[in-house]
Each structure stands twice: as structure tokens, then as C-alpha cells.
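ok so I'm stuck.
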Amino acid sequence: MIHSHIHIDHIGGDTLLSDGGRIPVYGPAGELEESLIRHRELAGLGTGRGTNDPSTFLGSMEAIEDILTDFSGMDHIDVCGARFSFVESAGHSKEHRLIVTPDKVCYLGDAIMYGDTLAGSKAPYTYDLAGDVISKKKLAQLEYPKYIAAHEESFDREEMPAVIEQNLAIFRNILENVARLEEAEPSLAVIEGTKKLLTNIGIHGHMDIYWLSETIRQYFDYYSRYHTDRFIQPADI
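replied:
not stuck anymore, here's the structure
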């Protein structure tokens, strides 16, 4: 098993699928270490509920520490005589990688959203928004014939520009809302606008505080850094 990144929705079944470590697991070990620290902190807060409780993820994450082979710093690995290449695509996560199979199919991980996943996304999680935008620009320059997006089906190279634009449109919409809030004078209208923004992008459940600090902060930081109303345009890619 080769992972594009270490998030629980990607590695949660590793202990079962690896058959006790008999089947090798590859991924960025640094991301696993950071995720474990974060989930232990969240579990310690005791704010989770039911299946959304971060403490329920810890067992699966801790179990792969001993079976994960780190591929950080590598541009490929050879498995059973077949070469799988990596393309750096940090943004959604710190060490995210695209994975290219020997027959030139590019597995995108969460570097791009597609289909129902894209349609249902209000504010996609991103570790580094600026890096995420750069990774999407890189995607536009790749020339693999077929792409497979995580959580969804495949699509052809000809579709990539439109898919990228649809992804960037989500970023752009959030940034435009952030700009209006940042530029407005302090008032009840700003408070109401902030509440509306958070509602529209789907803040929910036990992850509220963490989700705010780690995701929404990226959009405010991005605006503060570039301080522009031009944001991310199709021409940028």
C-alpha cells in the first residue's frame, strides 16, 4: 500500500489490510508523527462524540507506526519489479505526494477534488493554502493520460483545466468573503457576516475549534499575505 498522505480517512484500514505487517505500507512518516500528536491533544480535550471522537482514531494511527516505511525524500519506490513515481504536491497536507503507476496513471490523493466530493465541499481542508494553489498549478502542467481522484472516479487529462478551475473557485469564494470581513469597520454586521461565513463553509461537530484554527486561518493568512482582491484567477494556472 502506497499512501499519498497520512490522514485517517486514507490510512484507517491499514492494520487490517497489511495483514499484521506482511504487506508493506509506504507513506510520509513525518505526517504520521504530527497527526498522532494532534489527535492525542484532541482526544485529551474529551470534546469528541461518537464516531467523530478523535480518540477512536488513535488505535488505527498508532498501529501503523511500526509497519510504515517512510518515503520522504524519495522520488520513487520499486515494488515487485514495478516502479511507482512520486510528484511533490504539498498543500492539502505537509508532505502530500501524487503517485504515478508504471502505466502512467496518476493517483491524485486529495490534491484535487472531483465529482460528488467536489460538489459537496464547502471549505476543503488545506495545510498550506498558498502551497495548495501552487500544487494545482503543477497539476495543470502534467501530461498523464488518466487521473484518479481520492474518494471518486477517474477522469482524463483533457478535463484537468476545468477540474482545477472548479477547485480554485471554492478557494476564491471563501477569500472574497474573508476580504469583505477584513476590510469592514468593526460592527455587528461583521459579526453576522463571520457567523454566516462559518455556517456556509460547514463548521460542525467536535472539530470546530481545531478546524477553525487549522483551516480557516489559512484563508485569513493568505489574504493578509497577498492583500489583494484579485485572488486566484484562471489565468494564474
